[in-house]
Each structure stands twice: as C-alpha cells, then as structure tokens.
Write a structure and sequence with these properties.
It is a single chain. The chain is an alpha+beta fold. Helices cover about 45% and strands about 15% of the residues. The chain contains eight helices and eight strands, in the order H-H-H-H-H-E-H-H-E-E-E-E-E-E-E-H. Strand 7 (about 205-210) and strand 8 form a beta hairpin. Helix 1 (about 5-15) packs across helix 5 (about 80-110) and helix 4 runs antiparallel to helix 5. The protein starts with a helix and ends with a helix.
Length: about 260
C-alpha cells in the first residue's frame, strides 16, 4: 500500500465509525481512493484552487483536499473533520457520476429491451414517460416495496414473473443495482446486486452468471428473469444472451 493510500485508509476508518453502512461500502471507498492515487493529478496545485474546484463539484479535487486536511500539508492545517467531510463529498460525487452514466447507457442501448418491452410484465422506463403499465403509482409502489428498492432510485427495467401480476417476483434494474426475487425461492428474499460489486456477466445455457472482482460467481439466474418469451420456438439464443451479458458488464464497468 502506498504512503498516500495508507493515509486515506485512515480517513476511511475514521469515516466508518458508528454510521458505516457495510463492508461493501468501505470496499467501494477504498477502490475510489486507489484509483485516484494511480495518477493523483492535483498534488502540486495550490490549495486555494483545489478548494474552488472541490466546491464546484470536482470529486478528485475533493479527495486531494481531504488528503491535505488529513496530513496538514500545502498550507492547510490538519483538520480531521474537514478531511472526513471532503472524503464523503468525493464519494457522493463519484457515485452520482456513475449513476448517471449507467442510466444514460441503459437509455441509449436498452430502451426497447430487445423488442420485448410491453408496458406490462417486461417494461422499461419508457412506461413512465408514456404513463402506461407499471408506471401507475400503485404498480410502481409495489415494485419499490416488494423489491426493497432504495428511495430516489430510477426503475430502468422491471420484469414481473409473479402469477397474478402482483410484482412480488421477478427482476428490477436501477442505476444503482439489480434486484431479484426468484419465484422458486421459498424464503422470498430480495437479492440486491450492486453495480459496484459486479465485475462481469456471462451467459450459458439459459443462465446468466454474475462475477465479482475476485473472479468468483456471486449470483446466477435463469433467462426468464430478463426475458418474457423463452419458448422453444423462439429460444434465448446464445447471441441474444451474450449480447445482454455484454451490456450488463459494460454497465457494471461504469461504476468502477
């Protein structure tokens, strides 16, 4: 671990304290710091300018400012509260950039979901715009409640596999995560696959496999979680499955 990364590891530790959400969140912070220190582009720029850039919403400037307050360098006095504040602000800004990138990518490439978008049980965000299907307040609330989707997240895609259109089972994609509730899972628990935890996605024999950064599979689900028509007549061909897996992999890479 480099000297500077070691310093910011202490920042993360201080930030984790009593209000840390999870080890996954801490891992995400460490990745961001690690990526920043690969280049550290602002280390020789005066602190006044760094403050201006950080205040205007530059996440790298926020990280640089956090480091300087942590170590008391470049004419800034040591201030742990300011160091923690700017580190948190950097995380927020990086997350916003990633969320916007994922949403934009989906809308550019997957709006019509391989021509299966139907405003009913295989729908994209276009249903919101056209005021149809799962866009109704009651239906949307069912997705948020049943899949435990975070407040403020945008539903980009929703696949309802429940028997009576109750939105109790299926799969939902937002700019922050993929939520899955398998109909054959007796525990009826919600699986949340955050984009930050996904390294790549592959497809084989009607099953999608999700892999973490360590190369190990973290989840798998059948193709009907993503597609409505999986009949033998149509079949989910390797080409179609591989196409979606490549899109999902690209979306995950936008969060790195």
């Amino acid at each position: 671990m480099s000297y500077f990364l070691h310093l910011l590891a202490h920042v993360v530790e201080e930030m984790s304290g009593a209000d840390a959400n999870s080890s996954a969140e801490e891992e995400q912070k460490n990745k961001l710091y690690d990526k920043y220190f690969d280049k550290r582009p602002y280390d020789d720029i005066e602190s006044k300018k760094i403050k201006e850039w950080a205040t205007s919403g530059n996440p790298q400037a926020c990280l640089e400012l956090s480091l300087r307050y942590r170590n008391g360098t470049m004419l800034l006095e040591e201030n742990k509260e300011q160091s923690s504040f700017w580190a948190r602000r950097a995380i927020e800004l990086f997350s916003e950039q990633s969320n916007n990138a994922i949403s934009s990518y989906f809308k550019r490439h997957l709006s019509y979901w391989f021509n299966e978008h139907n405003d009913h049980d295989c729908s994209t965000y276009l249903s919101f715009q056209r005021r149809r299907g799962f866009d109704s307040p009651e239906t949307l609330e069912q997705y948020y409640n049943n899949f435990k989707i975070g407040l403020g997240e945008e539903v980009l895609f929703a696949r309802d596999t429940s028997f009576w259109d109750t939105r109790s089972y299926g799969l939902v994609i937002t700019e922050k995560a993929i939520y899955v509730r398998e109909i054959d899972d007796k525990s009826a628990k919600t699986i949340k696959l955050e984009w930050s935890s996904i390294n790549n996605v592959s497809y084989s024999n009607n099953i999608f496999f999700f892999y973490g950064d360590d190369g190990n599979a973290i989840y798998s689900t059948k193709s009907n979680s993503f597609f409505k028509d999986v009949s033998p007549e149509r079949m989910i061909t390797e080409k179609l499955g591989e196409g979606l897996s490549k899109h999902l992999t690209k979306m995950a890479s936008l969060y790195k």
